[in-house]
């Protein structure tokens, strides 16, 4: 699913959805000459939702699908951009947003709030996911002496409480033997505020979701302390829809999911162009977008609601309950894949069974409309050493977790003739402990050895 050569056959986006009975809804009645506004809440800078948000909007696929309905109704799409999932949930439960996209922990809060307020919602598809948890990262300032999660004991750590990144922080601390409630001073901040706090020195570390860790690392404002994939627990983003809207406008939800499937096919087939589109719409560097959403990026995109993701969602409930953000959540009742199952048609079973291909080392040359992949990180380094002035970005997968990272921001280990990259010091140290004679080298040394 990461490159056209390795991804499954294109999603059958034109397949009709299972139509539900039409019941009451707050939208204007469809019919000849009427106008219906469909409100979509998305997070432009949470770039693993792009197939249901930023990229989908830029491609215009949803509007085209609505125009193709031919039911005599004029449809308008109101795209509303938010920094996190919480305000999208607030607007959905107020009946003001019909379809939203957000990460796994916010999805659970969405489910809980919807049930609590009598406006139930359902998870209807998936956008970007990483089966090991690599979408979330804890970072520190470039000159920080912190080298492990254990070093966070007694420190100030910024995160967005209730987010997937907060879940990563909580679990990482627990595994390190630190009480998440008492062992650190947690700063509950929006991602941009937390990034500023880290830069200003008022936070010792920042735990955030895409694309903030990669952005700060790319800008030279942070370095990775903890790779979320060390947890080996899936994390994902998905699409949620109000139950009353789905029943009232099944054809509209059908159009959205068909459009999402089309956007996924586009992203898979044109990863560089997609990164440029998202960058243009968000102001994020295309190199950062590509780190997550590229041909070998940290995220895999396919709309199928995989059982492993649902199982992970159930495990996430306990974290939110401990934080007193939700009570029990009936995940099985929240998940409803009937819509996407019908939209994907015969390919749905393949999508459910498909596993993301292993990440590969990749270079984005300056002025090029595409990228170049390499069999090993050492081969990439050799190429970069010969073309240093002509490299826009270079990406390498962590030798143990597979999480992609910028080559010049990775921790490099020399083991005999092998050159191995790691996202964070902890994964590098773990490798050193198991391989006598291996040692950490600088990026410059790695380049020299490769050339």
UniProtKB/TrEMBL annotation:
<protein>
    <submittedName>
        <fullName>Nitrate ABC transporter, periplasmic protein</fullName>
    </submittedName>
</protein>
<dbReference type="InterPro" id="IPR015168">
    <property type="entry name" value="SsuA/THI5"/>
</dbReference>
<feature type="domain" description="SsuA/THI5-like">
    <location>
        <begin position="88"/>
        <end position="274"/>
    </location>
</feature>
<feature type="signal peptide">
    <location>
        <begin position="1"/>
        <end position="30"/>
    </location>
</feature>
<keyword id="KW-0732">Signal</keyword>
<dbReference type="Pfam" id="PF09084">
    <property type="entry name" value="NMT1"/>
</dbReference>
């Amino acid at each position: 699913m990461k490159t056209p050569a390795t991804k499954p056959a294109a999603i059958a986006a034109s397949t009709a959805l299972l139509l539900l009975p039409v019941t009451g809804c707050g939208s204007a009645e469809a019919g000849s000459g009427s106008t219906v506004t469909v409100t979509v809440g998305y997070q432009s800078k949470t770039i693993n939702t792009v197939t249901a948000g930023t990229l989908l909007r830029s491609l215009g696929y949803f509007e085209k699908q609505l125009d193709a309905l031919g039911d005599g109704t004029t449809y308008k799409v109101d795209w509303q951009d938010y920094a996190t999932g919480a305000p999208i949930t607030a607007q959905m439960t107020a009946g003001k947003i019909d379809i939203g996209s957000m990460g796994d922990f916010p999805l659970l809060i969405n489910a809980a709030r919807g049930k609590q307020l009598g406006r139930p919602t359902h998870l209807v598809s998936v956008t970007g996911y990483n089966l090991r948890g690599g979408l979330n990262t804890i970072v520190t300032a470039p000159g920080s002496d912190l080298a492990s999660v254990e070093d966070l004991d007694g420190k100030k750590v910024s995160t967005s409480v209730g987010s997937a990144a907060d879940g990563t922080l909580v679990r990482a601390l627990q595994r390190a033997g630190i009480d998440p409630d008492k062992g650190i001073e947690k700063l509950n901040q929006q991602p941009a505020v937390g990034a500023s706090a880290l830069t200003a020195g008022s936070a010792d570390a920042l735990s955030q979701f895409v694309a903030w860790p990669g952005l700060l690392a790319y800008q030279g404002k942070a370095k990775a302390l903890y790779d979320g994939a060390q947890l080996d627990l899936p994390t994902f983003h998905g699409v949620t829809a109000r139950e009353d809207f789905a029943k009232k406008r099944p054809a509209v939800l059908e159009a959205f999911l068909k459009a999402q499937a089309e956007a996924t096919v586009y992203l898979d087939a044109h990863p560089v162009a997609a990164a440029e589109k998202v960058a243009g719409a968000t102001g994020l560097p295309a190199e950062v977008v590509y780190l997550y959403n590229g041909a070998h990026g940290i995220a895999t995109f396919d709309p199928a609601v995989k059982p492993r993701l649902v199982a992970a969602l159930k495990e996430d409930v306990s974290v939110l309950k401990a934080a007193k953000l939700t009570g029990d959540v009936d995940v099985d009742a929240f998940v409803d894949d009937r819509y996407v199952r019908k939209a994907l048609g015969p390919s749905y079973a393949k999508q459910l069974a498909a596993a993301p291909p292993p990440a590969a080392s990749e270079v984005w040359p300056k002025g090029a409309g595409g990228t170049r992949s390499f069999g090993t990180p050492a081969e990439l380094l050799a190429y970069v050493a010969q073309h240093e002035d002509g490299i826009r970005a270079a990406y390498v997968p962590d030798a143990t977790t597979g999480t992609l990272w910028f080559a010049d921001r990775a921790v490099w280990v020399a083991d005999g003739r092998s050159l191995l990259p790691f996202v964070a010091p902890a994964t590098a140290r773990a490798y050193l402990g198991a391989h006598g004679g291996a040692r950490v080298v600088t990026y410059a040394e790695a380049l020299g050895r490769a050339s």
